[in-house]
Amino acid sequence: MTTNLILQGLSTQRSDIDRIAELAGGSRIVALTENVYRVEDVRFSEALKAGIDGECFNARLDYAFTPAGRRLDDFGLVAMDMDSTLITIECIDEIADMQGLKPQVAEITEAAMRGEIEFRESLTRRVALLKGLEASALQRVYDERLKLSPGAERMLEAIKAAGLKTLLVSGGFTFFTDRMKTRLGLDYTHSNELEVSDGKLTGRVTGGIVDAEEKMRTVERVCADIGISPRKAIIMGDGANDLKMMGISGMSVAFRAKPIVRAQADVALNFVGLDGILSLFE
Length: 282
Description:
By secondary structure, the chain is α/β, with parallel strands linked by helices. The chain is 39% helix and 24% strand. It has 2 domains: 1-69, ACT domain (Alpha-Beta Plaits), CATH 3.30.70.260; 72-282, HAD superfamily/HAD-like (Rossmann fold), CATH 3.40.50.1000. Strand 2 (28-33) and strand 3 form a beta hairpin. The longest helix has 15 residues, at 212-226. InterPro entries: DUF4072 (IPR025138), HAD-like_SerB (IPR050582), HAD-like_sf (IPR036412), HAD_sf (IPR023214), PSP (IPR004469).
């Protein structure tokens, strides 16, 4: 199968594109837009990928090796993590900030995303620190701090136009995923529910915890529901708890992700927005 190399950045220097294309040994360079280029007929190898990775990172370019002729509608589902993927914040860290506990909670969050703490344990510890907080703080986080990641709306518009379904599956909370579903017109969401009593957080979640295994099972359930194989799913995430669902996908995308995730994903977007995945299809 013929392989192409896609190079893209927020801004690009043609000299960087030419240098990397020469290293890749492709037959020609096609400018797709001002900042997106396709190097055609590349012979992929792990050694080549390692060399391209270093060159692109230094030039602040994202790259992907893609099969020639691959189309977005070859897939049937895009599944996304929420915190630090679809949106720019970690909601639980911002909730904790309302308690003056952001540094303590953020430290646990970071360790969990790097894979140093099992996610279930990390969530239990972090949520416990929120005990006694007024539940109204959740709305404040949504109103004042939650922002979509760059390119999110353009990506979703194209996904829907191509007929794909959308799933937001998160180790975060239903308060936010429910609002994202309505705001963005998503097809499916699944996340954790914070327990509230007398208008305050109890420091617990109700029901099962959406950890790495549950994220993977959710993707499998949704794929079964729409009648496709998980290999027809594009899965996007940034943390270690996304790796299991990414592992069953047909295309895994690490978005501004932790090193452990970038190393295992098919595609890593470090510089461009979420809509950078659209450049990977013909």
